[in-house]
Amino acid sequence: MAVLAFSVTRLSRTLSFAIALTICLAVPRGPQAGETTATTQLSGLADQGATAQKQGLPVRDRVILVVERLVVQLKAALEDAEPPTSVVVHLRFPNLRSEMEIELPFDGKLEPEGAKAVKKFLRCRRTGRRRKIAPGLLAIVADLGKRYQGHTIEIVSGYRAPPYGVRRSKHFQGHAVDLRVEGVPTKEVRDYLWQNHTNVGVGHYVHQDFVHVDYRPRQNDVAWSSKRRGAPYRINPKWARVARAVLAPADHDHDHDHDHGIGHLADVANSVSNDMATH
Ligand SMILES: [Zn+2]
User: Of 62, 71, 72, 192, which alpha carbon lies 20 to 30 A from 270's?
Assistant: First the structure.
């Protein structure tokens, strides 16, 4: 029997495969207690047959393989076709010595439990008072979390209770947050927000190295810079014009450009004087 098994292994691959297949059907796999040596050898042949099967696949198995691969690709394509609706964001609030990880939907509309947790986390750091944070603002934070995935967002201030802010501060309404993104220059965060969002105010506080962003529906967008504490804001600074000029369609009518530019600046000035901005 041992001689027979030895000679079989030297046959052509096709023949041994055919024999092994027959053995597979005829002999149970794996040695059992009390099995003879011959049975163990036959079982070994079956294993060789399985190896041969992998190396020289018959047509039927190739078709199965192709179908399996297609299914895998189709599943991947379907997953791609359904973009995520939320992002997990890691927030740190050093002034309150607290951190949180939260799944923020891109529309900013949290379930009551999540909204409550965010309200507590972004509470006024001076008074401890809380106010609901606007979904419009959370949508902006979610987008920032998506853009800088894996980076912690550091909160400088969230909700502020009066009188800790300028008159009509967006912070009083739960509409504003001052932040940094760890590992990313604040000017990059500032430009990203200004380029990718509307209904916003974006302020760059250069000396303190943070970005203010607020959600202001039905108002003109406003961008500003503050170079040092107490200095007057520069409204529509160069970085803001440059960041959005990249997005503006090419227009070769220079006179029209000029008029439009002045009109836009007037809009911004009105918006700021009507609303006292900002931070
Ligand atoms: Zn602010």
Answer: 192
